[in-house]
């Protein structure tokens, strides 16, 4: 049977992708950001999954104000990197495990979670930057080391789903993957965050103390994390900190007790905080 072996939380700061694509990762500004992923990249080589179930948010490329699905599951064969206004990132096309994606769609919808099924979708930096951060530089004509099932979550236009709803969806995804008959090593990634605000009077907001507490909750107290309200996310982490609800999908799919094997937190990267954690299931 398929099994979820680990969960990863990772910021998807677009400037991380730019730094990699333009070859400036060794500059003094970027060195501490990428140093925190040295362990992660080796860990990925040692624990390479067959499939990554990757929870991310679209930044008005696949979706805009005309169509805003709360949860959109990618079921296409492939997903091309999107042109976000300055050309598509020079990274490989993302390839799906369509049978697993279809199985998850059926299982989760029959588990009473309404998903939008995407049979055609481009993916932006929300998805490709975490892949680059974790796997390192891969030529555009190469292949990502594993298949990827994408789940896009609306955290751009309120109302976003609650932390608890995302946590419960993670549990439903866990049930779906556990019931898939093929022997697969699956990791689930929650991306986005951490604290940041991109506009208005609080632009540039970073709340490192709150971010650290959130990472602690991911490792040891997910029940507290899933009770965080929209108001608290907005007040404590800025208008874009709501992206962290996507980490709750990841955490809901893991065992109640997990082992934290790595953590990385750095300020600043562009105008945001970078947060990253690797959690392993016990079984």
Describe this structure in words.
This protein is of the alpha/beta class and 283 residues long. The protein has a single domain (3-281), classed as Protocatechuate 4,5-dioxygenase, Chain B, CATH 3.40.830. 34% of the residues lie in helices and 22% in strands. The chain contains ten helices and ten strands. The strands form two sheets. An eight-stranded mixed β-sheet has the order 6-3-7-2-8-1-10-9, with helices on both faces. A two-stranded antiparallel sheet has the order 4-5. A hairpin with a 2-residue loop joins β9 (258-269) and β10. The chain is globular, with a radius of gyration of 17 Å. The relative contact order is 0.23.
Q: How does the overall form come out from the CA principal axes?
A: globular
List the strand order in the largest sheet: 6-3-7-2-8-1-10-9
Classify the fold: give the CATH topology: Protocatechuate 4,5-dioxygenase, Chain B
What is the string of SSEs from the N terminus onward? EHHHEEEEHEHEHEHHHHEE
Sheet having the most strands = 8 strands, mixed
Low-confidence stretches: none
Number of helices: 10
What level of helicity do the residues show? 25-40%
Number of E-type strands:
10
């Amino acid at each position: 049977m398929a099994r979820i072996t680990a969960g990863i939380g990772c910021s998807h700061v677009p400037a991380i992708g730019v730094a990699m694509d333009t070859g400036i990762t060794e500059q003094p500004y970027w060195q501490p950001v990428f140093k925190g992923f040295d362990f992660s990249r080796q860990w990925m080589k040692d624990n390479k999954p067959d499939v990554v179930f990757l929870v991310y948010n679209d930044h008005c490329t696949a979706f805009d104000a005309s169509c805003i699905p709360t949860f959109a599951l990618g079921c296409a064969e492939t997903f091309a990197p999107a042109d976000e206004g300055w050309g598509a990132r020079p990274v490989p096309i993302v390839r799906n495990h369509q049978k697993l994606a279809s199985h998850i769609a059926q299982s989760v919808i029959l588990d009473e979670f309404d998903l939008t099924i995407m049979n055609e979708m481009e993916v932006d930096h929300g998805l490709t930057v975490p892949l680059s951060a974790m796997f390192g530089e891969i030529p555009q004509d190469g292949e990502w080391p594993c298949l990827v099932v994408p789940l896009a979550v609306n955290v751009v236009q309120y109302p976003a789903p609650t932390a608890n709803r995302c946590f419960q969806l993670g549990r439903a995804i866990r049930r779906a993957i556990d019931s898939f008959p093929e022997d697969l090593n699956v990791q689930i990634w929650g991306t986005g965050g951490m604290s940041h605000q991109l506009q208005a009077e609080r632009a540039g907001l970073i709340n490192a103390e709150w971010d650290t507490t959130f990472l602690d909750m991911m490792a040891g107290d997910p029940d507290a994390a899933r009770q965080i309200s929209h108001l608290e996310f907005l007040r404590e982490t800025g208008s874009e900190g709501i992206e962290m609800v996507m980490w709750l999908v990841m955490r809901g799919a893991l065992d109640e007790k997990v082992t934290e094997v790595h953590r990385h937190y750095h300020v600043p990267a562009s105008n945001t905080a970078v947060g990253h954690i690797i959690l392993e299931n016990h079984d």
